[in-house]
């Protein structure tokens, strides 16, 4: 017995017992059985006793999805604040408006399937249309975590989400500009206030959030390098600063003399903005900002790139494809795969080789031709 509760084994399963106050004020015993391991029964008992103590205890059969998400699932997550915020935004935006009022035990695989179908058809919050299969798959991943926790807490016996096949996303076709197209774009945007960012995108292949979160304290112009140690992520539509997700993402990228010169020019322009705005300037320490010093939202870079590409009359690619462009052109220029992998922040060279395998054959042919010419020339 522990603070009004206990755990006992009944046959092959475990049962949790606890007491609540009935309508007449008398103690009434409640129980929840069917736990296969003692640990799950103890987890459920601890959760229930906490709710009883706070005065917000809800009988298992009456617990709704909204109550469980807001009172148990989200508060119990031991994850980065930005990840918890993204889970909350996704659930509040896509799942709870549709299923939040349902009791946990009433959620069936058919209801989960209907949720996926609806999101694919009309799931966008800001405009008409459905979510992409990849987005719906992510909804299913987070929703599945919620229901798995509900199983562990003893509110349901099975996870209905795990019984439903999630939409299969088609991987976006990777596109890359040629060297002429990349040069043409940079010529067109030479006077744009984000020119230095566009150059970095196309010559070093950073991620959008890494450029949005880049700070002057991360840039060593004298030493010719910049460090990726901050990133800006979008939660809902709110941008938040966050450390890079992986150890490999936290990296140092070399800057040649031309890039250093371009970044120095960008800094001079920013200092001129600072003088012009005076006290109204916001000192964020971020490299790429609005004219008043406020950091740019990551989505702004994508929108601006799409607009400028269209105005330049170039073949349409996504901003993320500038990363593929930089990597492909670097490999074609003979830069070692390991160096390119480090620039991109890949966890291993094998990932770089896998993603850019289409570039490797032509590199191999060219290298072979050079070696043959070299040997035959020496042999004559």
Q: Give the spatial strand order of the biggest sheet.
A: 1-2-3
Beta-strand content = 5-15%
Parts with pLDDT < 50 across at least 5 consecutive residues: none
The CATH top-level class label of the largest domain: Mainly Alpha
Helix content: 40-55%
Number of domains: 3
CATH H-level superfamily title of the largest domain: Intergrase catalytic core
Mean pLDDT: 87
Give the overall silhouette: elongated
Explain how this protein is built:
- The protein is mostly helical and 380 residues long.
- The protein folds into three domains: 1-55, no CATH class; 58-171, Orthogonal Bundle (DNA polymerase, domain 1), CATH 1.10.150.130; 179-365, Intergrase catalytic core (hpI Integrase, Chain A, Orthogonal Bundle).
- The protein has 14 helices and eight strands.
- It has helices at residues 38-54, 65-73, 81-99, 109-122, 133-153, 179-188, 195-204, 208-212, 257-277, 298-312, 321-332, 337-344, 349-355, 360-379; strands spanning 5-10, 13-21, 27-35, 219-220, 225-228, 231-235, 238-242, 251-254.
- It has a three-stranded antiparallel β-sheet with strand order 1-2-3, covered by helices on one side. A three-stranded antiparallel β-sheet has the order 4-5-8, with no helix packed on it.
- A hairpin with a 4-residue loop joins β4 and β5 (225-228).
- The longest helix has 21 residues, at 133-153.
- The mean pLDDT is 87.
């Amino acid at each position: 017995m522990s603070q009004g509760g206990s755990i006992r084994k009944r046959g092959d399963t475990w049962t949790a017992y606890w007491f609540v106050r009935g309508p007449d004020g008398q103690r009434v015993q409640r129980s929840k059985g069917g736990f296969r391991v003692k640990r799950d029964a103890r987890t459920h008992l601890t959760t229930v006793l906490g709710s009883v103590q706070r005065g917000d205890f809800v009988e298992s059969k009456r617990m709704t999805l909204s109550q469980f998400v807001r009172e148990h699932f989200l508060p119990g997550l031991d994850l980065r604040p930005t990840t918890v915020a993204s889970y909350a935004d996704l659930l509040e935006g896509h799942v709870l408006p549709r299923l939040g009022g349902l009791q946990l035990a009433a959620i069936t695989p058919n209801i989960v399937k209907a949720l996926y179908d609806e999101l694919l058809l009309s799931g966008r919050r800001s405009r008409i249309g459905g979510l992409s299969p990849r987005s719906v798959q992510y909804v299913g991943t987070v929703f599945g975590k919620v229901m798995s926790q509900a199983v562990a807490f003893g509110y349901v016996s099975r996870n209905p989400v795990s019984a439903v096949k999630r939409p299969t996303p088609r991987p976006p076709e990777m596109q890359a500009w040629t060297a002429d197209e990349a040069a043409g774009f940079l010529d067109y945007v030479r006077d744009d206030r984000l020119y230095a960012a566009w150059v970095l995108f196309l010559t070093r292949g950073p991620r959008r959030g890494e450029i949005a979160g880049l700070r002057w304290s991360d840039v060593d112009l004298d030493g010719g390098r910049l460090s990726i140690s901050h990133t800006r992520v979008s939660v809902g539509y709110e941008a938040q600063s966050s450390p890079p997700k992986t150890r490999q993402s936290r990296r140092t990228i070399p800057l040649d003399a031309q890039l250093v010169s371009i970044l120095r020019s960008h800094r001079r322009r920013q200092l001129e903005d600072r003088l012009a705005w005076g006290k109204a300037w916001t000192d964020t320490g971020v490299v790429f900002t609005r004219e008043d010093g406020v950091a740019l939202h990551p989505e702004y870079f994508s929108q601006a790139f799409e607009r400028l590409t269209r105005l330049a009359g170039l073949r349409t690619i996504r901003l993320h494809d500038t990363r593929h462009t930089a990597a492909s052109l670097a490999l074609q220029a003979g830069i070692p795969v390991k160096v390119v992998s480090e620039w991109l922040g890949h966890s291993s060279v094998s990932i770089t080789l896998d993603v850019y395998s289409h570039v490797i054959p032509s590199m191999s042919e060219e290298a072979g031709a050079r070696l043959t010419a070299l040997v035959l020339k020496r042999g004559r």
